[in-house]
Amino acid sequence: MEAPKRCLEILLLLLLLVSGNPNAFIHRALAEGVTPEEAKELRDEVRGMFYHAFNGYMEHAFPLDELRPLSCGGEDTLGGYALTLIDSLDMLALLGDWEHFASSVEWIGKNLQFDINKTVSVFETTIRVLGGLLSAHLIASDYATGMKIPSYDNQLLNLAEDLARRLLPAFDTPTGIPFGSVNLLHGVDEHESKITSTAGGGTLTLEFGVLSRLTNDPIFEQVTKNAVRGLWARRSKLNLVGAHINVFTGEWTQKDAGIGTSIDSFYEYLLKAYLLFGDEEYLFIFQEAYAAAMHYLYNDPWYVEVNMDSAAIVWPLFNSLQAFWPGLQVLAGDIDPAIRTHRAFFSVWKRYGFTPEGFNLATLSVQQGQKSYPLRPELIESTYWLYKATRDPRYLDVGRDMVASLQYGARCPCGYCHISDVEFHKQEDHMESFFLAETVKYLWLLFDLAVGPDNLVENGPYKYIFSTEGHLLPATPQISLFREHCSYIGAFCKSSDYNQESRTSDIAADLHEANGSGSNEGQVHSRFSSSSTFFESTLTSGLVKGFCPGLSHGQKFGITYLEPVDTTNQYESANKREPNILQSHSMVVVPNQGSDYSNSSNDNDHDNSQENQ
């Protein structure tokens, strides 16, 4: 493993020296200084960008899903239910546009229905539609947000519950990992592919978890947690996960491990589920997964893709979806590597005006077939989080450059266009709904923060967690102080309406299941090895108050991995690798003394991390 990685480092160094500019791709621009007045102008300009695209959609595409901004038309791309409007709701609230927010909520409540013969992506429908409905419901129903709609009567919540129930058949698999698609009227088609991505199966916990807390029905949270367990149980011995998996057999069909395409938000939702729900199981998995990613994937400041079993480099590529990672590191408290990686990623943006879908680190050029920029928000999102954490003015300069690129390269008659080729800035007649849900949202928040924030996120009554689609999920007592945690603080605990059976520890359910005293066909727990140290531990009393502190995380949660059917010595060489290739990082939520990886913890960083959420 060391030899290929060292060769890559040498190759990168030589190419940079040959270019005559060793700083060409590790951009070290000094902050030119965005003044408060300019920051206000940029914030207002971004507001104008939003309304140029939103009004274009409402005038030329609504109620179709998405806008065709060049031809000023519309198209149904997901399910035919006004996708862009739903995705835009909480941005309207963030801007304080009560009139448009209220009228949009009213229209959706009266006209939207999911009793339609459409086959939809479980992942996209969850993060865009379910998340958009839940976020808008939580804003519209709460006086504390300043955007309450007096006539609102939970119409969006009812729609969200109806939609989620139509997605539930996708989870009926032997592994608990859901199918990638489901028909909203008929369920899963018999010919539906059994292959799904790790991100597709592991990025559902926030939306479904919030819905369980709002409806007092545990089924939504249970199925998505089982999906995460199903994926994590099949990790390699290096604690890496692959990109695609068979939801029936649990066999990895693509073993490339990375932080980008097909895997990215799996890591994101592990940490954010812990931050929003306080569930330590997600924290434990994140700690293990993050340590492995930093050990095997991090090639400072870039990230590569490796074989999940051997850690051999298979793809020295930066893809644009990796750009969310520095923002996630800010939430985890690992700031230094986030700064270096963001600088490297932004150097690609500076070179082309946008980030291509793929940038080859071996040739330092756009990857063939991956030249497009579909208005992705990930690098902008990380810029916002790094500015929030550091208040370094260089990130305002970065934001200013991004606004200029979008205005001069992507703006078209009725909205903003995909860039089909970043080298020639060729426009394509399509605008994803996430441009309004995320891209302009993070830009606006960046400059509003610089001016002196006056918005729901920074000055509102709650701390907010952003979903992977940028939707606002508040840490209200009903959502965050639920089950065990309400017992600690004495706050909201609506136990009388919640299925009492579901309040019993998940650990107890898993133990009964694994020992054959209960049957729950299709769940992953029965597939765990009976030799796991977890089953050697005994159940402790006081389940509501917490787990016995004498048990390890693995014993508490029963987290193990499923041995492959054909066990070989393929891991042996990788496991002999010295674990000290990385400098230790100052972490808030990723200390793991029982791991093979070396990461130091700084308790003083904890409060800072909470402020950055």
Strand order of the largest sheet: 5-6-7
Q: Show unreliable segments.
A: 1-31, 484-553, 565-587, 591-613
Helicity, as a percent range: 40-55%
What is the end-to-end distance?
36 Å
- Count of discrete alpha- or pi-helical segments spanning 4 or more residues: 23
**Rg result:** 24 Å
Largest sheet: 3 strands, antiparallel
List the helices and strands and how they pair.
Blueprint: H1 2-18, H2 36-60, E1 66-68, E2 73-75, H3 83-94, H4 98-111, E3 119-121, H5 122-140, H6 155-167, E4 181-183, E5 195-197, H7 198-202, H8 205-215, H9 219-232, E6 244-246, E7 252-254, E8 256-257, H10 264-277, H11 280-296, E9 298-299, E10 302-303, E11 305-307, E12 313-315, E13 317-319, H12 325-332, H13 335-352, E14 358-360, E15 365-366, H14 378-390, H15 394-410, E16 411-412, E17 415-416, E18 418-421, E19 426-428, H16 434-451, H17 456-459, E20 464-466, E21 472-474, H18 477-480, H19 484-489, H20 506-514, H21 553-557, H22 572-575, H23 605-611
Antiparallel strand pairs: 1-2, 3-4, 5-6, 6-7, 8-11, 9-10, 11-12, 13-14, 14-15, 16-17, 18-19, 20-21
Helix pairs in contact: 2-15, 2-16, 3-4, 3-5, 3-16, 5-6, 5-8, 6-8, 8-9, 10-11, 12-13, 12-14, 13-14, 14-15, 14-16
